[in-house]
Amino acid sequence: MSLTSPEVSAFAQRVPAYLQRLERTTDALLPAASTDPERLHQAMRYACEGGKHLRALMVYATGETLGVAIDKLDAAACAVELIHAYSLVHDDLPAMDNDDLRRGRPTVHKAYDEAIGILVGDALQTSAFEVLANTAALDAEQKVRMIRVLAHASGSLGMVGGQAVDMASENKTLTLAQLQSLHARKTGALILVTCQLAGIAANASEAVEQALERYGKCIGLAFQIQDDVLDQIADTATLGKTAGKDVAQHKSTFPSLLGLEQARQRADALFDEARDAARGISDQAEALLWLADFIQQRDH
Amino acid sequence: MSLTSPEVSAFAQRVPAYLQRLERTTDALLPAASTDPERLHQAMRYACEGGKHLRALMVYATGETLGVAIDKLDAAACAVELIHAYSLVHDDLPAMDNDDLRRGRPTVHKAYDEAIGILVGDALQTSAFEVLANTAALDAEQKVRMIRVLAHASGSLGMVGGQAVDMASENKTLTLAQLQSLHARKTGALILVTCQLAGIAANASEAVEQALERYGKCIGLAFQIQDDVLDQIADTATLGKTAGKDVAQHKSTFPSLLGLEQARQRADALFDEARDAARGISDQAEALLWLADFIQQRDH
Q1: Which is it for strands A105-106 and A101-102: parallel, antiparallel or unpaired?
Q2: A7, A76, B49, B110: which has the highest count of C-beta atoms within 10 A?
C-alpha cells in the first residue's frame, strides 16, 4: 500500500504547509472582515473556512510532480478553492439544493441570509479571477491561460452547466452515459482543471498535458462515484452535510444505476487508472499517487 | 447644444455599428441556445437582450477618443455588459430586489425559474472574464490589467459590495455621503471601469488615466442621481422596470435627501464637469461629449 511508503508520506508531511499557504493566499486576497460592507466580508470568509481543500492539494501535488516552484501554484490553488466555495454557497440556496448544513456548520444563507448568500457567491467567483490576475509569480501569458481554462471549467459548459443539468434531472432516471456527462461537468471539470493549472505553471509539454488530463478525469469521476456512495452509506455527522439527499431528491446516482458494490468497483478501477496515469507523468509521482490513495480512502 | 453639432452626430451615427459589434462579440462568445444545457444557454442569451448598452458605448466612445483600434475594444465592451447583465439578473431575484420586470420583459427568474436565474448570473460573470482572456486583439499584459480592474470594480469592494450596502440600507435614512459611497460602488464602479478599460487598450499615460477617472466618476454619479429622479417621476412602461420602487422600499435617494429640483441640478452640474473632463482628455472628445448629452437626456 503506497500510503506507507517513505516517498509518499513525504508529500503527506507537506500537506499542512500547503494548506497554510492556501490560507495565507486567501487571507491576503479577501478584504478583512472589518472592511465595509462588514457583513459581506465576514460571510465571504465564513464560506472559505473548513473543507478538505482537495482541489488546492491537487494543484500543489501536480505542480510538485512537475517540478514547479511553489509560489507559482499559490494563486491557482486559491482560485480553484474560491470557485468551489462559491459554487457550494449557491448550490445550497433554497432555490437550488436548499441545504442547511455544509462542512458541519450552517450554510451561508442560514448563518446570514439569502441575499448575502447570493452576493457572497458572486464576490468569491470574482475573487478567483482576481487572484490569478494579481499574482506576481506568473507571467502574463500564464495568467491569461489559467484564467481561460478556469473560466471554461467553471462556466456554462462546465460546472455551472452541470449544476443546471443536475437540477433538471431530479425525478428522472438517467442513463449511465448521461450521469457521467452530468458529473464530468458538475464536479469533474473543476477537479480536472487543477491539473491543467499546474501544467500551465510548469509550461508542460503537450504529452504531459495529455497525461495530466487522464489523471484528472479519472480522479474526477472516481471522486463523484465515491460521493454518491458516501451519500448513501455515511451519516450526516461524518459527512458534515445532509446525508441521503440523492434518494430523497430522487436523483440518479452511480449506486442507483449500478448497485452499490459495482459502483465501488468502478471507482476503484478509476483510482487504479489514475495511479497508472500518474506514473506516466513522472517516475517521481508520489504526490499524485498519495492523493489518489487519500481520496480513495476518505469517509466524507 | 452639442447634440446638433456635426462632429457629435458623427459618433451618434456610429452607435448602431458599435452595438452590432457588441452583439457579434456576445453571440460568438456565448454557447448557442441549442447547446446542452439548452435552457441555461437560452436564458443566458435572454438576459443579454435589450437594454441601452450604455456601458459598452462608453468603452467605444472612450477608446475612439483615445485613438484605439476598434477591435481592441470589443472584448472590454462585451465584458462590462456581461457583468452588468449578470448583476441585473441576481439583483432581480426574490431574495434581493424581487422584481418581475426588466427591460420591458419578465425578469429571468420569472421567464424561467429561480435556480436558472442564479446559474445564469453565475455563468454570465464567468463569461465576462473569459471574453477578456480569449480575445486575440490585446496582448497578455493588457488582458491581465483589464481582468484586474474589472474584478476590482465588480467585486466586494465595488458593485457587489454596493449591492450589499443597498440591501442593508432599506428602511434607513442615509446621509448624503453614505448614499454617494453606496452608489460609487453599486453603479459608479462599473461605469468608471469602462473608461479604465479603454485606457488600458490605449496604453494611456497616467495623466490621461486621471482625466478618464474624473470623467467616469462624474458620469457614474450623475447617472445614478438621474436614475433616482427617473424612478420617482417616470412610469413603469417608459422605464421598462418597476417605477416608484425606491419609495416603496423606503430607500434613501438623491431626491429624498436633496429634493427633486436640487437633485436634478446636482446631476446637471456633474454632467457639465464630465464634459469639462472630456475636453481635458482630448480636443477631439466629441464621442465623450455626445455620451454625456445622451445620458443626460435619457428618459429611461
Answers
A1: antiparallel
A2: A76
